[in-house]
């Protein structure tokens, strides 16, 4: 054999054509069906919220990196993804100035303060949602459909009063809720693309959604209905699967997903707030180092202490 066939180099030896930009581009493509559904159901208000969130996130990242004399990384599209996901986590009529503040918090406080992409310890968009919910709870829980204020299906389930939308309406998305969480169909179409592109794996979404389905059914709620309402699909498919804030191993991913499902169910059934997806993922984000510590396989040849 020719000596030119051998290359000596240090590890790692695995090569991939994937970059941060290509992965984020795939996520944006996957979010397009939910974006179209949001604009279709919530009209111009939804479009303005989405544009404001995306532009605010990009501007915040650019301004911070310029002010701190760091490399400007807005070209990797991660700020665009954060903006989209944050927009998906607020109501259609949410004031645009609040959207901008939430975007700056997500990018600067949650992402850049910790060193930028790959260094944040929790999901920036979910942390932004939690910040907005704590700051302006009334605005964050005011839902409109066709210009009429309405309750979300989870709020109706929590109160035990009112008429629940049909499961068909819940699946398609013609219900009250945040922009990106109402249409399970649109979210599943996008997730199928991410699975095809191998951007995400099935382990976290299936273990997360499956845990909620089983536990809510055991507790006497309609688990089959419950998995299509609220932020479960959005959280399980697009935010719990975030590379930076989820475990590295298959076993760790399953534990992470089951933990998210357990916390979500406890909050939905026993908590004072009808939804628990955001807090469950944020809490499990903080547990990721511990999960990785105990489920990461031992390095070959390592001497046990």
Automatic annotation (TrEMBL):
Enzyme Commission number(s): 7.-.-.-
Cofactor requirements of the protein: FMN
Broad class of where this protein is predominantly found: membrane
Coiled coil residues, start to end: none
Transmembrane segments: 23-41, 47-64, 94-114, 126-145, 171-195, 202-219, 225-241, 253-271
Compartments, as annotated in UniProt: Cell membrane
Keyword Protein biosynthesis: no
Subunit structure: The complex is composed of six subunits: RnfA, RnfB, RnfC, RnfD, RnfE and RnfG.
Function: Part of a membrane-bound complex that couples electron transfer with translocation of ions across the membrane.
UniProt family annotation: Belongs to the NqrB/RnfD family.
Protein name: Ion-translocating oxidoreductase complex subunit D
């Amino acid at each position: 054999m020719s000596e030119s066939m051998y290359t000596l180099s240090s590890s790692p030896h695995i090569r991939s054509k994937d970059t941060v930009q290509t992965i984020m581009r795939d996520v944006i493509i996957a979010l397009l069906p939910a974006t179209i559904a949001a604009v279709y159901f919530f009209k111009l208000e939804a479009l303005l919220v989405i544009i404001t969130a995306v532009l605010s996130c990009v501007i915040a990242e650019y301004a911070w990196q310029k002010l701190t004399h760091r490399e400007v990384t807005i070209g990797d599209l991660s700020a665009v993804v954060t903006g989209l996901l944050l927009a998906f986590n607020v109501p259609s009529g949410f004031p645009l100035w609040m959207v901008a503040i939430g975007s700056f918090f997500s990018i600067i406080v949650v992402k850049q303060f910790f060193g930028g992409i790959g260094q944040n310890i929790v999901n920036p968009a979910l942390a932004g949602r939690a910040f907005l919910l704590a700051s302006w709870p009334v605005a964050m829980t005011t839902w409109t459909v066709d210009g009429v204020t309405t309750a979300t299906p989870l709020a109706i389930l929590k109160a035990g009063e009112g008429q629940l939308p049909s499961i068909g309406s819940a699946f398609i998305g013609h219900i009250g809720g945040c922009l990106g969480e109402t249409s399970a169909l649109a979210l599943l179409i996008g997730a199928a693309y991410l699975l095809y592109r191998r951007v995400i794996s099935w382990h976290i979404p299936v273990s997360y959604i499956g845990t909620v389905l089983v536990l809510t059914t055991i507790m006497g709620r309609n688990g089959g209905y419950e998995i299509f309402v609220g932020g479960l699909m959005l959280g399980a498919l697009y935010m719990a699967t975030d590379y930076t804030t989820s475990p590295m191993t298959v076993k760790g991913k399953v534990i992470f997903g089951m933990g998210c499902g357990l916390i979500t169910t406890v909050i939905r059934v026993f908590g004072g707030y009808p939804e628990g997806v955001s807090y469950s993922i944020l809490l499990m984000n903080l547990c990721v180092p511990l999960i990785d510590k105990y489920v990461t396989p031992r390095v070959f040849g390592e001497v046990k202490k």
